[in-house]
Design goal:
With 83 residues, this protein is an alpha+beta fold. It has one domain (2-73). It contains 2 helices and 3 strands. It has a 3-stranded antiparallel β-sheet with strand order 1-2-3, covered by helices on one side. It comes from Afipia massiliensis. This is IS5 family transposase.
């Protein structure tokens, strides 16, 4: 785990990425360097998760590549593409 500690302006740090299902129970947990791009890690997490009809994410996961990958796997109910 020591190799997953990255340097940030706040010091050495890590980030826990998670995909949760009903009642916030975790399905996938991934420990990463703090300065790793969230969208790249999200693709790994989503690939490890079982198929789902929905996915809710915050704006840190907004990238065209991730949106295209999700649209191929899910049927979106809200467009993630810019208007």
């Amino acid at each position: 785990m020591a190799h997953d500690i990255g340097r940030t302006k706040g010091g050495r740090n890590t980030k826990l990425q998670a995909i949760c299902y009903e009642k916030s129970r975790p399905w996938v947990l991934l420990l990463t360097l703090r300065n790793v791009n969230d969208c790249k890690v999200a693709q790994l997490c989503i690939a490890a998760a079982p198929p789902s009809a929905e996915l809710v994410a915050n704006k840190g996961y907004d990238s065209q590549a991730l949106c295209e990958r999700l649209e191929a796997r899910l049927r979106p109910t809200l467009s993630l593409s810019p208007i």
